[in-house]
Structures are given as structure tokens and as C-alpha cells.
Amino acid sequence: MEIGPASGDKAGFFTQGRRWLNALPVKFKAKVADTARNIKKVGQDDPRRVIHSLKVGLALALVSIFYYYQPLYSNFGVTAMWAIMTVVVVFEFSVGATLGKGLNRGMATLLASALGVGAHHLANLSGHVGEPILLGSLVFLQAAISTFLRFFPKIKARYDYGLLIFILTFSLISISGFRDDEILELAHKRVLTVFVGGCACFIISIVVFPVWAGEDLHNLIALNIEKLGNFLEGFGDEYFKRTGDAESKDDKKYLEGYKSVLNSKTGEESLANFAAWEPRHGRFQFRHPWKQYLKVGTLVRECAYRIEALNGYLNADIQASSEVRSLIQEACTNMSIESGKALKELSLTIKKMVQPSSADSHIENAKSAAKNLKSLLKSGLWEDTDLLKVIPGITVASILNEVVKCTENIAESVHELASKAQFKSVERTVSPEKLHSGQPQNIKSAQMVNCSHVVVNVGESTMAASPSEISSAPKAIKHNMEV
Amino acid sequence: MEIGPASGDKAGFFTQGRRWLNALPVKFKAKVADTARNIKKVGQDDPRRVIHSLKVGLALALVSIFYYYQPLYSNFGVTAMWAIMTVVVVFEFSVGATLGKGLNRGMATLLASALGVGAHHLANLSGHVGEPILLGSLVFLQAAISTFLRFFPKIKARYDYGLLIFILTFSLISISGFRDDEILELAHKRVLTVFVGGCACFIISIVVFPVWAGEDLHNLIALNIEKLGNFLEGFGDEYFKRTGDAESKDDKKYLEGYKSVLNSKTGEESLANFAAWEPRHGRFQFRHPWKQYLKVGTLVRECAYRIEALNGYLNADIQASSEVRSLIQEACTNMSIESGKALKELSLTIKKMVQPSSADSHIENAKSAAKNLKSLLKSGLWEDTDLLKVIPGITVASILNEVVKCTENIAESVHELASKAQFKSVERTVSPEKLHSGQPQNIKSAQMVNCSHVVVNVGESTMAASPSEISSAPKAIKHNMEV
């Protein structure tokens, strides 16, 4: 009866094998589903990515007509491939990046072609033996010099790609000249096909659902300020509520939003570089003060560093005693909420491109809360308390004080941005001086702001604005109307 | 007598003109001198830049032999220009970046050439009318899909350039096939010339004064930790000395060093990406744990955020009263100096690739200083002081406490790095447990560290190490010998 176990083993093997085979499609399905979810996520995070992909395909298909269409092909021949190369390499996500790369490539090709032809003629004079030596040394020299130039920070930021193409084109043209005597035609064709390829990129990237780096930078800065505002608005409640209940740990996501601000420098700088290439678009003029956005961004990051320190006290093991908390709670919460409101106000005014108005009053409120806290600390209420229990609370208060200062700096730089970029003023009847001095309470109630639903006095603004202003910024006004 | 003034005017004009002309060379000279200074600075900041520029020139000059040398030219003809393009585009500053780009380009060219030939044959079957339509749709599809793939963060980090070249090559090969029936030869030549160009880059970048991204990352992390250490070592003195004298404002440069750490994330990540492509070099194995460096870097940045907050109190308007200062001075200064020493120790052990030893005892010292501070604050010494005067000092102490915690985290991650990367242990006689538990004072004196002159027990380490270890890392041991 040995067949039993053996056939059992066999059956087991087959069963296992079948199970594995049965599991295979499941695993495969899971893998596919996972990938599909990933693809969907990348597309949903920014649907412009899908459109961009289709745009690149379209541009390439268009340019390849150079090959298919006989009259064009008989003119350009194989050099038509430069047009294809240009499209592949130049077409970037935003209009600014595309324009920057395209102009770099175009100018560098033009200049390098001219110099390459010159080098070829120079080398021609030096006889058959001297020619390769002279050409080789020229290529070596220009490559070394151009490569070194790419290390200069200012040049790297804007003309890095141009220098690369300069090296490439100069080498190609001057060396090709050694074999091909129709070098002038080669240079001419190269410039022309690069021009055609570049134009295809420009037109498609500007006409078909354009992605403007400037607008992205504008929105990014506004979003970053809003993130800090969200944190500060929530911080007071979160910190002072926390001793009693630990339940609210999962809905703290809005408190983590500021983390992305800490490392936003590189992204902001490249967007600003791209934006500098962009023509006038939507609400943005040609010479929009993009550099001012970088200044605002730096101050926002400085504020984010303080907030990172604050966040450490949210999760710290040692918390201030409850009596200390209840004493400083009101002032601290006010400081935090008011500066948070001010930041969200500033973010909103950037988004809508109107002059910041009520943010200043929020900052004033935050400052007076800070003063209250100071006088509270001066009062004798504290003499009986254990200092060790006071420390965490006091540290939080002290950092909040720094945050208020940062908020003030941000407000100042946003004011500067608003005047440089000529943001529209919302309320012409209230002068900025009034806002700063008298009756902050009255003014505040007059321009009551709810942060998500802004009540702005659009009537006066449109009445006061000239017709050309209205027609040039229909989007901004429409936004005002909506809210 | 109207001639007088007129001639005077004339003379004045001439004098002015002459002055302007005289000034011109001076201005020009100043401009030239300024540019020269700038060039010198870029070169002196990192002399490897000059060498890199010469290397690029050399590689280009070498590859252009394809054109000059008749037997090679008769084989490759115009396609030799792909070799030149490859050199210009692939040759990057570090070996890792060059290898990454070269391998990306090579693999993408190979794959896209094969698929392009396939697409050509497929299109051939569909007749003369259908061919351009089918080819166009294929080009459109692959361009759209590949472009979309470039948005995936993981793919973007390592294979972005490969996808670009894939789009390029596939389009070129498949479209060229419409005109050129020797498409297989074209694809073959393209792959071969790209291979030759890539090899020229690899060989020159590895053989002639190689710049290793991995080594740069290693040094960058060590340098960043050292910068934080420098700040902390100087902070105590700077903060507590400052009330009396304001003279030391100019020699505070070492206190600003940490600022570059705040924004080092992008640089570290790209270096780690490049390093992953690099073969074994110097003291680094092929699978050196580069990702662990990123973890250390993140913790270092978190510490830098705390330090940024501390720095705010160095320059704050409101300072703690002098009596408060004198009370907390000793404990705070100890916390700061000891954690600074610990960081500099850690930086040094990374630089020398030895197991961190005495850093832990410094951290213990910093912790005990923090404990002292706590008990000081618990004691009744404070009851008569004005709380408002205490706040800045207490906040500084509280943030310093956070810094000590950060230092501990950094030390832990450096320990992890040391074990993952198998750093050599300096003292085999002292077990890590002992270091953490008993008699920290004795151990500290036994392995007294001066931070710039480390006394390490090299004899034991080399005795314990196997001969292969010694031969594989002569540089590291030599470093130990030197100090």
C-alpha cells in the first residue's frame, strides 16, 4: 500500500502546482491593478501631464511630415532629422522651459554654425596636413572653454543648454567640413531644420492647453503660504487640546502640509528661470516681477523653519502643565490663529492678484495678542508655579512670537510684490494709512473675511477701474464675482 | 568776444571727450579684471572644474578622429557624428553621472533601434499609402507613452534620459526607414557609434582624474555635519558673551556655515542617484549604502532647522537678563559644545570611515548637562526673577535640548551607516555596551579626542584586520596613520 502516500505526494505536488498556477493570474492581476492605480494617480495628480504627453506625440507626428512629403524631403533630405531631434529635446512641460531651451538651441546653432564655417575656412588655408591638426585644436579649445563657462552659476541657470548645443554644433560643422565641401549648405540646413522643429514646439506648447511656468510659480507661492496658514490656524487648538484627549491623531494631516515648503527652493528657482522666458500670458505681463516671488518664497521658508520647530513641541514627550496651558492658552491661540489668518489672506490676495488689505489687521491682532502674553507673563500670577512645568509652554509662545515676526516680513514682501506687479486694489475708499492706524475693529468688520468665502467690494473696484483694465483681466474679476 | 566762451565750450567738449576716451581703457581694464577674478574664483572653488573642461575637449578631439582617419571614415561615414553627439551630451562632471547617462543612452538606443526596425517592417506590410499613416501613429503613440512615463518619480530619477533617447531613436529609425531601405545598417551604425562615443567618455572620465559622485556625497554629508558642529561649538560662547560686547560681529562667519545645509536636499539626492551607477572606487564598494547617506542627510537637515531657530535668538532684539544668563550659562554652553563636539566627531569618523566611538560619550555629556539644567530650573533660585527676562534664555535652553535629541538621532543613523558600510572599528577592546553604560568619564579620557587631531589606536585595528582588508583600503589606513 505504498501507492497511497506516493500518489498523495503526487496529488499534493499537482495541487500545489495548480494552486500556484491559479494564484499566478491573481498575482498578475494584483500587479497590473497596482500599476494601473499608479498610472491613474500620476495622471490625476496633474492631468496636464497626460495632455503634455499627447502634445509631444502630436509635435513629433507633425514634424515627421518632412520625411513623408516629397517636396519637403527633396529639399532637406536627411537633415530633416534635426527637426525631429529638436522636437524631442526641446519640448518641455511648461511654455517657459520650452521657449528657453528652444531659443538657447536656436541661438547657439546659429552662432556655432557661423563660427564653424569660419573655422573650416581658416583650416582650409593651412593645407592638407595642417587642417586636421588645426581643426582638432579648435574643437578642443572651444569645448574646454564652453564647458568651463557652464560652471558659472548665472550662466548655468539660463544658458546651460545653449552652451551644450554650441559645443555640439561647432564640432559637427567644423569637423564635417573636413569631408564635406558643401559645409555652408549643411550649416544652413541645420539652422533651418532646428528653426522648424523649434517653431513646431513653440506653437503647439503655446496653443494647445499651454502650461505656464509663471502661473505655476505664482500658484506655488500662494499655496505654500496657505499651507503655513493652515498649520497656524490649527496649531493653537491642537496644542492646547492635546493634554486631555489623544484621539485626534489621525486627522492631523493638514498639520503636515508645511513640510513640503521646507524643500521648495530648487523648484521655485527653476520655475522662476523658466518664467523669465515666457511672453505675456493671462494675468501676467511680460516683465512680471518673478524675482520678487523668490524673495517671498525665501521668507516663507524661513517661517516654515520656525513652524518645524513648533511642530516638534506638538509631538514632544514633555508637555506644559495644564494650569500653565490654560493661562497662556488664549494669547497663544490668538497669536497662532491670527497669523494663520493673515497668511491665508495673503495667499488669497496673491491668488486673486488684488492688493492685500485685511491681512495687516490680522497681523495687528496677532501682535496685540503677543503684547497681552507679555503683560500676562509680567504679572505676578506665576510666582508659585514650578518653572520646569512652564518651559514648554513658554518656548512655544516664544517661537510663536518669532512666527508673528516672520508673518510680518512675508506680508511686507507680498505688499512689495503687489505694488511691483500692479495688483488691483480691492477697496479704493480705505487708504492703507487708515488700515494701519485707527479703529482696527471697525475696519475689520467692514471687510470681514472668512478665508474661504471672501466678501470683497467688487462694485467699487470695477467702477473705479478703466475699461481697458477690465478687459485685460476678465479672469481676475470673474474670480471676484464668484466668491 | 563771443569766441571766448565758444572756444571754451569746444575745448570743454574736447576735454570731456578726451577724458572719456582716457577713461575707456580704465573701465575696460576694470571690467576685464573683474571677469578674470570671477573666472579665477570659479576655478579655485573647485579646481576639478578646469580639469573636467580639458577632459571634455580631449574626448571630443579623440572622437573626431573618426572623421580624419580614412579607414574609419569609409566604414562609418556621416554616422560618425553620432559619436561626437554622444560625447558632448553624455560627458558629465562625475563618473556616476557620465555612466548613468551613457548606459541610459546605450540601452535606449539598442532597444529603440530594434523596435524601430520592427516598426519599419510592420509598416512595410501595409502598402505605400498605409505606411506613413501607420508609422505616424506608431511614432505618436510611443512618444506619448514614453513622455508620460517620464512623470513617474522613480523613473524620472534614474531613467529620464534613457526615455528621451528612446523617443528620439525610435522616431529617427522608424521614420528614416520610409526613405532609406538600408535601415538595418543605419540602426547598426547608430548603435555602434553611440557605443564608441560612450566608451570614450567612460574611459576618459574614469582614467583621467576621476570625479566620483559617491565620494562627493560622502564628503558633503561629513561636511554638513561638521558645519552644524562648528555652529554649536561656537554658539554657547557667542550667545553668552554677547550682552557685554558687540565687537565680534565680523568674525561670525563660521556661525553662518549651517545655512547651506538647509537647502542641501536636491544636491544630495542627485549625488546619490549618480553614485548608484558607479563601480567600486577607492574606499567605496560597488553596493555602498548610498541611501543611508540620504537618511543621515535628512536628520542633519532637521537638526539644521533647530539651529536656524537658535540663530534667530543670537540676533534677537530682546535678550535674557544677565543674571539669568549667568545662571544657565554653564549648562547651556556645555550642551551646545558637547553636542557640537559629538557632531564633529561623527563627521570625522565618516571622513575617515572608522566606527564612531567617542561621539557617544559627548552625547552623554550633553545629556547630563541637560539634566543639570533641569534640576537647576527645578531649584528655587528663580522665584524672585521677572519671568519676562527669563523667557529668551529658557527658549534657547529648550531648543538646545531639541538639538541634543537631534544629535542623538544623527549619531544613531551614522552608527547604522558605519555598520552597513562596514567602517573599520578603531578600538576593538571597548565594546559599544560599555560605552553606553559604565564610567563614561574613564572611557572618555581613554579615547580623548581633540577633533582636529584624533588619537586612534591603529595598531590594534590593523592587527585584527585580515590582510585582504588592509590591501583593499590602504588609503583609509594611511589616513589613520597620518593623524
Can you describe this structure in just a few lines?
Helix content of chain A is 77%, strand content 0%. Chain A is mainly α.
Q: Overview of this structure, please?
A:
2 copies of one chain form a homodimer. With 483 residues, chain A is mainly alpha-helical. Helices cover 77% and strands 0% of the residues of chain A. The first copy, chain A, is built from 21 helices and no strands. Chains A and B meet through helix 1, helix 2, helix 5, helix 7 and helix 8 of A and helix 1, helix 2, helix 5, helix 7 and helix 8 of B.
Amount of helix of chain A:
over 70%
What is the assembly state of the chains in this entry?
homodimer
| Uncertain segments of chain A | 1-6, 243-247, 428-483
Number of helices of chain A: 21
Main sheet specs of chain A: none
For the termini of chain A, the CA-CA separation is 86 Å
Q: What is the radius of gyration of chain A computed over CA atoms, rounded to a whole number of angstroms? A: 32 Å
The total count of strands of chain A amounts to 0
The fraction of residues assigned to DSSP E strands of chain A is under 5%
Mean pLDDT of chain A: 79
Pair with the biggest interface: A-B, 76 and 76 residues
Helices and strands of chain A, in order, run as HHHHHHHHHHHHHHHHHHHHH
The helix-and-strand class of chain A reads mainly alpha
What global shape of chain A is seen? extended
